[in-house]
Amino acid sequence: MFQKLLVASLLFLGIQFVNAVPNATAYCDSTSGICYQGYTDPTLDITVGLTFPPVSTDGGANSTAFIAEIVAPVTYGWTGITVGGSMAYSLLFVLWPYEGEVILSPRWTTGYTQPTPYYGPIITMLPGTSVNSTSITASFLCENCTYWEGGAIGGGDLEGTQLIEYVANNDTEVFDPANYASNFTIHDVYGSFELNLADAHFSDFFSLL
């Protein structure tokens, strides 16, 4: 048990092992029509994708928004991602199904402890968000989301690279599924991929909304 927790802690803190981290590739969601840079884990059957507005070319401030898609088996108790490459001081998202609906909860924590709700992001669920007999899909616009307390995606460089990590609990539900602030047990599966942010900007981003 200790070894399992240690390995999970090291991975979620961004410490990688000898296995090569896969790179994100382009794909388009057949339901929403939105195209992402992302990755599908062939073992865990988890897909994570992100797309961003164009970076500013006139010296103005960049948008703090992105669109994300998370797809996971509906049998998982919960699924989560970090867009900051670690669990601590990073923007996290946790999702689970409840009575046919998707519960999506932004989270944040200072360490390898229970993440609590994080109230900076402005979330808008988009078409394609669904729960069916096999999978749960969250497609959402996240505003005020490229910076957070203690960090920023790409370390503040929206044309840099970012490690994206995803985790899940195979079968244990959150303690209070109706409550987006519910606590939950530790993840027991995890993975990661490298996102080249320069490839993830879409010139007509705002037409997707």
TrEMBL record:
InterPro entries: Cellobiose_DH-like_cyt. The keyword Signal applies. It holds the Pfam family CDH-cyt. The keyword GTP-binding does not apply. Residues 27-205 form the Cellobiose dehydrogenase-like cytochrome domain. Gene3D superfamilies: Cellobiose dehydrogenase, cytochrome domain. Residues 1-20 form the signal peptide. Keywords: Signal. This is Cellobiose dehydrogenase-like cytochrome domain-containing protein.
